[in-house]
Structures are given as structure tokens and as C-alpha cells.
Amino acid sequence: MSGIPGTAVIQITNLSSAVSSEQMRTLFGFLGDVEELRLYPPDNAPLPFSSKVCYIKYREPSSVGVAQHLTNTVFIDRALIVVPCAEDD
Predict the structure, then answer these.
(1) Which pLDDT score, from 0 to 100, does residue 49 have?
(2) In the 8-state DSSP scheme, what is residue 27?
(3) 75 vs 86: CA distance, rounded Å
């Protein structure tokens, strides 16, 4: 179902600058067991940014296909864009 066979990583773009790592972990944690989450720029960034990007690695690649269904879901003030992302092994 995902665009990259076997990947367990998704990239979420078009995130509000107000979003936190905890909010992302809560939202996407309902779809599968989150192994790792990285939010850029991080929560404690000293400079303001207009948007953020998040990478989430699930324990199971099947969660990627499910997570893609959140594309176009409005979260805070923006429609999320969720795409599979190649893993760097």
C-alpha cells in the first residue's frame, strides 16, 4: 500500500509552526507503534519558523499505509501531507 516497499518511515510536511513532538507522537501513535520521531526544527528551536517537518519510524511497515490516510487532515491550522520515506540503513 505504501509507495516504497518495506519502509517503516513516513515524512509529514506542511506542519504548523506551533506543533510539538508530543502532539505528533499522540496523533500518529494511534496508527501504530512509533519507534522514533524527529521534528525539524525541534521544539526548543530559538528562532521562529513558518512550518515544520516530521519523520516517524514505525515498528511495522504496515503502519505506513495506514498513516498515509491522514493526508489532507487539518491539524492545528494546516492540511497534513504524509508520504512514505526511504530508510537510511
Answers:
(1) 83
(2) H
(3) 24
Give the Cα separation of 4 and 62 in Å (integer): 11
Q: What is the pLDDT of residue 6?
A: 83
Predicted pLDDT of residue 1: 43
End-to-end CA distance of the chain: 21
Q: What is the pTM of this model?
A: 0.89
Q: How far is residue 80's CA from residue 63's CA, in Å, rounded to a whole number?
A: 17
**Pairwise CA distance, residues 73 & 82, whole Å:** 10
SS3 71: coil
Question: What's the rounded mean pLDDT across residues 60-81?
Answer: 96
